[in-house]
Write a structure and sequence with these properties.
alpha+beta; six-stranded mixed sheet; two-stranded antiparallel sheet; 12 helices; 38% helix; globular
Length: 355
């Protein structure tokens, strides 16, 4: 596990030494007051990083204002001439550029109900989903590897168990160690934990997402407060429906089908966030992040990642799953997803970097 910071090219900084080479830009008092008040409000938000990310989209829709606050040398004029989309260039100019590859473990976790909402302890539930994400600004690609929650692993002091228990036994730190150990010492630079209620809250804050449901899905689990009742076809799903769609696994596809549906939901969320109309939902989105997300990403790191991610095309995002096999009924006391060394090699090959 690595704690190295993301290398981000700072376009603007409060440090005068970092602005020495930038041209002087005259900003009217009203614009200055707006910038200062925006920065102050962001600093008051515990999860200001996502608020700033979303504010990028607000700024993209305000061309006149952008012309006043983005230094001339921050824009990729050559890229514009060669055909790059103006939106991509503006986003990069307003934010910070990701200058090196980075690998992040993202976990969807069951919230610990007896812990205060939003506290670190509230995120120490079982990980319902695990994604290892590699962002590579050199090749301009994102690779997402889904790790089945039933993957069999050894956990120190707890023996052989499922990988989704690591977050319960030792929080994000142990989860990173266990995933890294299982995947040939894969490098993990940061983590993000989202509680299961966060997905539903995010989708509702965005006003729903467009998903093509492949078949009839109906299942109820009162212990998990899960009520899935969906019909086949293209439709706009609200938060509860999107959560049910992504968590459903009560068919012949099992956990592998569930992973594929989670990836569909992630793409739909990205498409919705990329829409300029997201500005209308900004207050709700910030509120969701405050209550439902835990991460060790810094403000600058999140900004660099968001700037990079928002300029990607759909074909630059590749998704895959950790291959393996379900254990036989008589093989173990519990059911597991059994992963061979060859499966791990295939998942990491020419994509993810090990320590």
């Amino acid at each position: 596990m690595s704690n190295r910071p993301i290398t981000a090219s700072k376009i603007r900084s409060a440090d005068t030494t970092s602005q020495a080479d930038l041209p002087t830009i005259c900003v009217q008092p009203m614009a200055t007051d707006l910038v200062q008040s925006t920065v102050k409000s962001i600093k008051r938000i515990p999860f200001a990083k996502i608020g700033f990310t979303l504010s990028l989209l607000v700024s993209v829709g305000s061309g006149a204002f952008l012309g006043r606050i983005i230094p001339i040398n921050a824009l990729d004029w050559g890229g514009l001439i060669s055909g790059r989309k103006p939106q991509e260039v503006l986003i990069e100019g307003l934010g910070r550029k990701l200058d090196q590859p980075y690998q992040i473990l993202v976990m969807g976790v069951d919230r610990v109900l007896d812990a205060p909402l939003g506290s670190p302890e509230s995120f120490n539930g079982r990980s319902d989903s695990m994604l290892l994400i590699r962002l590579d600004p050199v090749s301009r690609a994102v690779n997402i590897l889904s790790i089945p929650r039933d993957t069999q692993v050894p956990i120190p002091d707890y023996g052989i168990t499922k990988i989704n228990a690591a977050n319960v036994y030792g929080g994000a730190k142990l989860a990173q160690e266990v995933v890294s150990e299982k995947l040939n010492g894969v490098q993990i630079d940061r983590y993000v934990r989202v509680d299961t209620q966060g997905l539903a809250a995010l989708v509702d804050a965005l006003g729903g997402i467009e998903i093509e449901v492949p078949k009839r899905m109906k299942y109820e689990d009162k212990t998990q407060k899960l009520n899935i009742d969906l019909y086949a076809g293209m439709q706009t799903l609200n938060g509860e429906q999107a959560e049910g769609f992504s968590r459903f696994r009560y068919d012949e596809e099992g956990d592998i089908g569930r992973i594929a549906r989670q990836q569909l939901v992630l793409r739909a969320i990205k498409d919705k966030i990329a829409n300029p109309s997201v500005v209308l939902h900004l207050p709700d989105l910030i509120n969701v992040m405050q209550r439902h997300v835990d991460s060790d990403l810094s403000f600058d790191e999140m900004t660099a990642i968001a700037t990079f991610a928002m300029t990607l095309k759909p074909d630059q995002i590749q998704t895959s799953s950790l291959q393996g096999r379900p254990s036989d009924p008589e093989e173990f006391r519990f059911s597991y997803w059994i992963v061979s060394p060859e499966d791990v090699d295939q998942a990491l090959s020419n994509v993810f970097v090990t320590k």
